[in-house]
Specification:
Order of helices and strands: HEEEH
Region (Disordered): 1-22
Pfam families: Zn-ribbon_GIR1
Domain GIR1-like zinc ribbon: 29-62
Helix content: 25-40%
Number of strands: 3
Strand content: 15-25%
Radius of gyration: 19 Å
Distance between the termini: 66 Å
Organism: Capsicum annuum
InterPro entries: GIR1-2/SIED1 (IPR055281), Zn-ribbon_GIR1 (IPR056440)
Oligomer: single chain
């Protein structure tokens, strides 16, 4: 007996690899250091939290370079 979910089911579909790649590649990323974990992490500019300890106190290593590039 085969079961299928109705169209109104709350089960979501998995994104295709192309959809997932294009969504992730559109997000600006930045390299930061977490003084709490003593780790370097690459995070999205939209979610400025350490993935390990969830701290929002992060050290931005390339901030001056981004400022110089935006003035040019």
């Amino acid at each position: 007996m085969e079961r299928s979910s109705p169209a109104s089911s709350c089960v979501s579909r998995e994104p295709s690899p192309d959809e997932e790649f294009s969504k992730k590649s559109a997000m600006p990323m930045m390299l930061v250091g977490c003084p709490g974990c003593l780790m370097y992490v690459i995070i999205s500019e939209e979610n400025l939290k350490c993935p390990k300890c969830k701290s929002t106190v992060l050290l931005d290593f390339f901030k001056e370079e981004r400022i110089k590039n935006s003035k040019a």
